[in-house]
């Protein structure tokens, strides 16, 4: 239960949200009489000195940044063992709520929202603060369209030395930058990438990458190009699509150099569209690649009489011929003779002797007057057989190819099952006959890809699973009671954080069931045994034994006399809830046993 008043100043009114590290409450600053948002870490994190140091440090770093598109931090304090951050309360909807209701957005609206996010990020980046978890859930949009970035809870300042600087320990997989998914440190370009995903989602109503598991989504961020947003929304102009795809470049160096540059690109685009609308409202621009029609000449409205066109000249006809005449007969005969002459020249081969015929082989004159054609000598091409390379070492493969007068073309990739330096595949199957000096491509194993185990101790189970899956690790969950860690949060992990293990290995997380006690195996035992077991079980108290006769116990004869047939725990207003052997129930529960009566 949270205290209702912090430091005699901040009145807590109601819960606004529950995150992986803290809860956020709506409160009131009694001194200044204004609403505020109060962030309080989860109780089990209050005893973690590393977390508290980071909590205070990042709060102070965020408080140093003031910008119209960032939620202001007013105060950082401690009341007894209760740490808290007091922030500006912004009334509005999250961008995610708006996307779910209204996407795809109109293009001017999405551009304006994106520009405001970019300007807020630029202010944070100038102060050395990287958000690392930009997503629509952390963007608040007021009713008048103002955008505010909130929740710098996973942010990293350039002064911080927290363990979460390396590895994929924080953030959301749907918006994660490729370098973060690969375990490299986040940079301002990582926030730009996440904003590119947000722009994509606003304009298409969908994410660029989806998958059945978080690791599938993370791998797509790393290796697959995003589908062009115009595939899903053809109304997106090509220039705006280019801005978004640049922000989504896999290589951070190919993205916008800063969030300010992205903001200016969006501003320039919006101004260009606005100017085009003002200059020629309601008129569509000519289609790209089609020349515009030339302007029509102005019509003459003066009273000058129009010129009368001159009459068209008539074409003189030749006098009509009544007969063919001898002239026509002579022309026909000459034409026929010319055609016959051309046929004779072509068929006799005279043109071949004149111009040469490269396609016809030379002839040799024999003594008897006959001739024979001399066939050209064929070109001899040296060939070799491609050897088997798979399973050999890279050095052996190179030597073997060179001995066979072939050119080695190696490449490499990580592989969990094939040892480092061994050939996995080859492009040309063994036994294939190819020309000498042909290139032969093959792939050499780099061994398993090693990744750093994220530190998920103290985080909520769903967040821990996402972070481990994003690192390419398999998650095994073991639930157990804990008196010091809240229900649903990770108590410990194995292997421990910062170790480098092969991608695809299993990490076990032990998740708290809360302060509960496992009900012992007493149902089915005798009353005496059950009472003894409960007496030695800390956290449980036997308060009543309900002896049930034949009139109250169904199947009475199935049980032995004094056998425990049921169990329950007492809740408010003396009501009881049935329990079974092995159930986890709250510590301090009062237990009622049902026992078969003797006859």
TrEMBL record:
Keyword Chaperone: no
Residues holding ATP: 39
Domain of life: Bacteria
Composition bias type Low complexity, residue spans: 298-318
Top enzyme category: transferase
SMART domains in alphabetical order: PASTA, S_TKc
Enzyme Commission no: 2.7.11.1
Domain Protein kinase: 10-272
Keywords: ATP-binding, Kinase, Membrane, Nucleotide-binding, Serine/threonine-protein kinase, Transferase, Transmembrane, Transmembrane helix
Pfam family, one: PASTA
Keyword Transport: no
InterPro entries membership: Kinase-like_dom_sf, PASTA_dom, Prot_kinase_dom, Protein_kinase_ATP_BS, Ser/Thr_kinase_AS
Transmembrane intervals: 327-351
Catalytic activity: L-threonyl-[protein] + ATP = O-phospho-L-threonyl-[protein] + ADP + H(+); L-seryl-[protein] + ATP = O-phospho-L-seryl-[protein] + ADP + H(+)
Record-annotated PASTA domain positions: 380-446, 447-513
Residue segments, region Disordered: 281-320
GO MF, one example: ATP binding
The protein's name in its UniProt record: non-specific serine/threonine protein kinase
Annotated source species: Chloroflexus islandicus
Lineage: Bacteria, Bacillati, Chloroflexota, Chloroflexia, Chloroflexales
């Amino acid at each position: 239960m949270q205290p209702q008043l912090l430091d005699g100043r901040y009145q807590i009114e109601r819960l606004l949200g529950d995150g992986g590290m803290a809860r956020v409450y709506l409160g009131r600053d009694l001194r200044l009489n204004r609403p505020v948002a109060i962030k309080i870490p989860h109780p089990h994190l209050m005893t973690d000195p590393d977390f508290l140091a980071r909590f205070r440090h990042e709060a102070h770093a965020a408080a140093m940044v003031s910008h119209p598109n960032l939620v202001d931090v007013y105060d950082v304090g401690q009341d007894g063992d209760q740490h808290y951050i007091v922030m500006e309360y912004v009334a509005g909807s999250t961008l995610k709520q708006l996307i779910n209701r209204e996407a795809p957005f109109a293009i001017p609206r999405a551009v304006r929202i994106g520009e405001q996010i970019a300007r807020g990020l630029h202010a944070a980046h100038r102060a050395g603060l990287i958000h690392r978890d930009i997503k629509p859930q952390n963007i608040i949009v007021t009713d008048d369209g103002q955008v505010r970035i909130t929740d710098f809870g996973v942010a990293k300042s350039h002064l911080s030395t927290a363990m979460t600087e390396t590895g994929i320990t924080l953030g959301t997989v749907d918006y994660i930058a490729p370098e973060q998914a690969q375990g490299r440190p986040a940079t301002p370009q990582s926030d730009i990438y996440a904003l590119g995903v947000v722009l994509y989602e606003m304009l298409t109503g969908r994410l660029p990458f989806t998958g059945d598991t978080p690791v599938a989504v993370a791998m797509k961020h790393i290796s697959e190009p995003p589908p062009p947003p115009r595939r899903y929304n053809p109304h997106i102009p090509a220039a705006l699509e280019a801005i978004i795809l640049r922000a989504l470049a896999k290589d951070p160096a190919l993205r916008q150099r800063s969030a300010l540059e992205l903001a200016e690109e969006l501003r320039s685009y919006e101004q260009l569209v606005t100017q085009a609308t003002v200059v020629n409202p309601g008129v569509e621009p000519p289609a790209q690649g089609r020349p515009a029609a030339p302007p029509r000449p102005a019509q003459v409205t003066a009273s000058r009489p129009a010129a009368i066109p001159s009459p068209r000249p008539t074409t003189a006809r030749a006098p009509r011929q009544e007969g063919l005449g001898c002239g026509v007969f002579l022309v026909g005969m000459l034409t026929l003779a010319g055609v016959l002459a051309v046929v004779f020249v072509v068929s006799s081969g005279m043109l071949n002797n004149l111009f040469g015929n490269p396609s016809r082989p030379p002839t040799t004159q024999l003594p008897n007057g006959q001739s024979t054609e001399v066939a050209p000598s064929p070109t001899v091409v040296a060939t070799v057989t491609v050897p088997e390379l798979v399973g050999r070492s890279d050095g052996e493969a190179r030597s073997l190819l060179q001995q066979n007068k072939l050119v080695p073309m190696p490449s490499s990739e990580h592989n969990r099952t094939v040892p480092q330096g061994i050939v996995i595949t080859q492009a040309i199957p063994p036994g294939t006959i190819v020309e000498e000096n042909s290139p032969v491509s093959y792939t050499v194993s780099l061994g398993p890809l090693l990744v750093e185990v994220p530190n998920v101790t103290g985080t909520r189970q769903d967040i821990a699973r996402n972070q481990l899956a994003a690192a390419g690790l398999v998650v095994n969950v073991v639930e157990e009671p804990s008196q010091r860690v809240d229900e649903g949060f990770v108590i410990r992990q194995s292997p421990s954080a910062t170790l480098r293990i092969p991608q695809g290995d299993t990490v076990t997380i032990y998740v708290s069931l809360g302060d509960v006690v496992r009900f012992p195996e007493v149902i089915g035992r005798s009353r005496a045994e059950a009472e003894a077991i409960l007496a030695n079980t800390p956290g449980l108290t036997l308060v009543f034994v309900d002896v049930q006769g034949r009139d109250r116990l169904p199947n009475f004869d199935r049980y032995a006399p004094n056998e425990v047939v049921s169990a329950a725990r007492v809740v408010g207003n003396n009501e009881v809830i049935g329990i079974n052997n092995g159930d986890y129930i709250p510590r301090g529960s009062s237990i009622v046993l049902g026992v078969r009566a003797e006859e």
